[in-house]
Structure formats: C-alpha cells, structure tokens
C-alpha cells in the first residue's frame, strides 16, 4: 500500500487494522487472539488484560476524577463492565485497549453526570512507581500536580487527547478509536493541546 | 496550521514512545523544524509525568482477585445450568425409550405385569411403566399422591413376598423408603396439602411399620437386619407425617411430643 493511500485511509476512524504499521502487525494479531480468549471468559486472558492495562486505566481515571478512592472504584468497574460485555464483544480490528478505554471514558462521563456535587480531592498521596528515585519523588509529585492543574484548563477535546496519549500511553490510532475520531483529527488536537499546555506551564514558571 | 509539523510531531512522539528515542534525536533528524518542535516535545515530556502514577498495590491485587473470582463464579453458574439441562435431557431420553420399548413389546404386557412381584419376569415392565407415569405427573399434590401410591404398592409387594415365603430384596425396601420420602417432600412443598392426602400419608407410615414388624418375626437373620433398619427409617417418616398432620389440623398448637410418638410405637408392637 502506498504511503499516500495509507494516509488517506488513516484519516477515517475504523480503518486502523487495514493500515496498521508493520511493527504493529504482530500486536494486532496478538490482540485478535486475546480478544477471542476474553470472549470465552478465559481467566488467564483476563489476568493478562488486567495486568497489562490496570495501571494505565487507573492513571487515566485518576486524572479525570481527581479522587483516588473514586478512581480505584471506577478502575475496578471498567474491568467488570468489560467482563459483562465480553461475550458480546466482536473483534473488528480495533485494539483491545480502545475497547477498554471507551468503557472507562463512558464510566467517567456517567460519574460526573449522575451527581454534579461530586468533589475532587487534592491528589496529595499519589502512589508513584517503585523505580522513581526517592530523592526526586517530592519534586515529581509537585510537577505532576501542576501538570494536572494545567491540563484541567485545556478544552475538553484537548484534554481527552492529552490524557489518553500521555497519561494512558495510547498510540494515536488507539486514541482515535476511543474518541471516535480520525487519526488526522487526533494529531491536530494533539498539536494544539501541547502548544496550549506549553504556554500555560511557561507562564507559571515565569511567575515562580 | 501547518500539516507537516503536525505529522512530524506525531511521528516524533511515536518514535519516543515505541523506539525509546530521545527528544534530541528527534530534533536532530528534523533540524529544519527544531525551533517549532522543541517546545512541543518539551510539553509532551511534561505531559508524560503522570506515567509514574501507579494504583496502590493492595488495591491492584484485591481488584484482580475479585475480577478472577467473578469469572470463576460465572463459570460455576454456567456449569450448573448446563448440568441441569443435561439432567432434563436424560430424563426425557429415559421416558421416551421406556415408552418405545412398551409400544414395541405390546400393550398387553402392561396390564399383565400389574400383579407381578419382585423377581418375576414381568416386574421390570411394571416398574418401567411407573417411571413413565411419574414423568407425566405434574403438580406437587398429584406427585405426592402418585408417590404415596407407589409406596403403598411396594408395601403390598413386601407383604405378598412374605406370605409366599419368598426372599425380601433390599431394593424393594429402599424403593418403599424413597417413594415415601418423595411423597413427604411434595406434601411439604405444597402450600395447602389436602386433609385426605395427609391422612393417607399417616396411614401409610403407620401401616408400613405394622407390615415390616410382621415380616420381621419370620425373616431370616440377614433379612432381619435390613428390616430393622427399614423400621427405623419408617419411624422417622411417621414422625415427619405426624408433624405435617399437626401443622395442618392445629396450626397454633405445639407439635406432638417425641414421648407421645414413643408411646404410639410401643402400642404398635
């Protein structure tokens, strides 16, 4: 497939599989095999899914709800919802991650819609990865809190892209699938979101 | 907005994420766009800081265990449903094959087998017919009546065998016991069992003990052991029958005392 045709096809959501890059080919096949096992409620496959995505789903949710207890509860719900809908899940070429994060996104939307009086809680006791140097821990926590604050000031569409791409670690194609947008649209949003974020962080550092 | 820089930015981010390239390597390979790319990649680096956030290990493990136990529980439910389905299948298969055998063997065998006793050639036809009848009997009260009838029939067979000095097979004793238990079960399940039905049950359990006690006197030593066990079981069934009767006749009264039952038993023997 020529590059120009691939770029054209990539601009439509839903055509990820056909235009997967060579390096992604094996992952697509792996996802296909995994989704078949998930559908059959194979416990081993569910354990793989959980171990692979638990941290990423939690990270995405904790940034959106800014409440660690609620984030834990919603993270668990994501996997239980996925389990519930597992038997009706149909492989259409989309990565398994897109399916999971779409569930997470819908749960977050419901979370804010059902009770508008819900409050965010300062993320003071964020649990960071073991590999983080203890000397850098305090600084990293402070930077992370500042970043979370900056991200909340972005437009909703920009925020969606930043949180999925950088907090959850999804690829452009996966993000496009979760948001139901084309990869081209995600790339544009990513550019504008990073520019806005850069501007905001620079302003704050100048004030300090 | 410059489409070229949008694509270059995305390609750089993918390189950093997938291949582990550094920001500097990306900037070097896109030197012409360095000024524009650098602040964006630096913002992306800041945006990736939350990547070090992890859920609490205790939560992570507990939620994993709960997820896997939910799967296991769902699997158990599915297995039991499947088992129930197969049991139904088996029940149908048994009933249909018996009907087929009876049809093929000829209708005259069924009435002829009615008076047969355990050990007779036609006795299996008699019990097979009963199985088919049991299959097509519906409703708690109807089933209770049917099982009572079978228990009475087994009791009569025992009496006839003893009269003719024929051996008492253990299978007939256990069949009488299980039919009695089934009848009690259906009466217990029935919300408002009829008085006649309950009286019939009490009469049956009373008669069973009388018949068994009578057979016991002339039985061989090895049969005596089985008969004593059957009498004990029958006493238990009688006790349950009395409770059901009392509950029906005197719903507010205390149930019959065990001592009263013992007195009744002494009077019997």
Can you walk through the features of this model?
The complex is a heterodimer of chains A (208) and B (269). The radius of gyration of chain A is 18 Å and the shape is globular. Chain A has helices spanning 3-10, 22-39, 43-65, 68-85, 96-114, 134-152, 156-167, 172-179, 183-207. In chain A, helix 3 runs antiparallel to helix 4 (68-85), helix 3 (43-65) crosses helix 5 (96-114) and helix 4 (68-85) packs across helix 5 (96-114). Chain A has one domain: Winged helix-like DNA-binding domain superfamily/Winged helix DNA-binding domain (Arc Repressor Mutant, subunit A). Chain A is 72% helix and 0% strand. Chain A is built from 9 helices and no strands. Chain A has 208 residues and is mainly alpha-helical. Among the domains of chain B are: 3-46; 137-268, no CATH class. Chain B is 79% helix and 0% strand. Chain B contains 11 helices and no strands. Chain B has helices spanning 3-19, 23-29, 34-47, 57-105, 109-113, 123-135, 140-163, 170-189, 195-218, 221-249, 258-268. In chain B, helix 9 (195-218) runs antiparallel to helix 10 (221-249). Chain B is elongated and about 115 Å long. In chain B, 23% of the residues are buried. At the A-B interface, helix 3, helix 4, helix 6, helix 7 and helix 9 of A face helix 1, helix 3 and helix 4 of B.
Low-pLDDT residue spans of chain B = none
Number of helical segments of chain B? 11
Distance separating the two termini of chain B: 107 Å
The structural domain count of chain A equals 1
Note the overall shape of chain B: elongated
- Total number of helices of chain A: 9
How would you characterize the largest beta sheet of chain A? Answer: none
Produce a short descriptive summary:
The complex is a heterodimer of chains A (208) and B (269). With 208 residues, chain A is mainly alpha-helical.
């Amino acid at each position: 497939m020529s590059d120009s045709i691939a770029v054209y096809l990539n601009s439509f959501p839903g055509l990820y599989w056909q235009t997967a890059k060579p390096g992604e080919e094996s992952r697509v096949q792996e996802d296909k095999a995994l989704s078949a096992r998930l559908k059959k409620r194979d416990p081993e496959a569910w354990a793989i899914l959980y171990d692979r995505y638990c941290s990423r789903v939690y990270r995405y949710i904790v940034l959106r709800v800014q409440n660690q207890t609620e984030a834990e509860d919603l993270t668990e719900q994501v996997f239980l919802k996925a389990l519930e809908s597992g038997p009706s899940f149909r492989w259409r070429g989309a990565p398994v991650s897109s399916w999971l994060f779409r569930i997470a996104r819908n749960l977050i939307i419901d979370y804010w819609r059902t009770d508008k009086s819900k409050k965010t809680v300062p993320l003071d006791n964020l649990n960071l990865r073991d590999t983080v140097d203890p000397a850098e821990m305090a600084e990293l926590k402070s930077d992370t809190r500042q970043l979370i604050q900056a991200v909340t000031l972005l437009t909703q569409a920009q925020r969606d892209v930043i949180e999925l791409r950088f907090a959850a670690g999804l690829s452009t194609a996966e993000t496009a699938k979760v948001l139901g947008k084309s990869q081209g649209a995600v790339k544009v949003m990513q550019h504008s979101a990073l520019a806005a974020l850069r501007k905001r962080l620079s302003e704050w550092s100048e004030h300090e | 907005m410059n489409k070229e820089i949008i694509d270059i930015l995305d390609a750089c981010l993918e390189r950093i994420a997938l291949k582990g390239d550094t920001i500097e390597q990306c900037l070097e390979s896109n030197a012409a766009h360095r000024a524009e790319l650098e602040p964006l990649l630096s913002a992306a680096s800041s945006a990736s800081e939350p990547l070090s956030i992890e859920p609490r290990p205790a939560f992570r493990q507990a939620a994993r265990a709960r997820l896997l136990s939910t799967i296991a529980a769902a699997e158990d439910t599915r297995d039991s449903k499947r088992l129930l389905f197969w049991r139904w299948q088996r029940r149908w298969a048994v009933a249909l094959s018996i009907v087929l055998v009876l049809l093929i063997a000829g209708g005259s065998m069924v009435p002829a087998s009615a008076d047969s006793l355990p050990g007779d050639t036609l006795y299996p036809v008699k019990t097979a017919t009963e199985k088919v009848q049991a299959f097509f009997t519906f409703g708690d009260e109807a089933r209770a009546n049917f099982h009572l009838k079978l228990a009475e029939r087994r009791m009569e067979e025992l009496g006839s065998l003893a009269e003719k000095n024929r051996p008492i097979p253990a299978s007939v004793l256990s069949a009488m016991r299980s039919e009695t238990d089934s009848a009690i079960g259906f009466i217990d399940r029935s919300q408002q069992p009829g008085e006649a039905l309950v009286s019939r049950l009490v009469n049956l359990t009373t008669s069973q003990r009388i018949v068994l006690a009578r057979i016991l006197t002339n039985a061989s030593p090895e049969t005596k052991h089985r008969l004593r066990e059957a009498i004990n079981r029958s006493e238990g069934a009688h006790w349950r029958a009395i409770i059901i009767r009392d509950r029906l006749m005197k719903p507010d009264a205390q149930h019959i005392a065990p001592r009263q039952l013992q007195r009744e038993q002494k009077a019997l023997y």
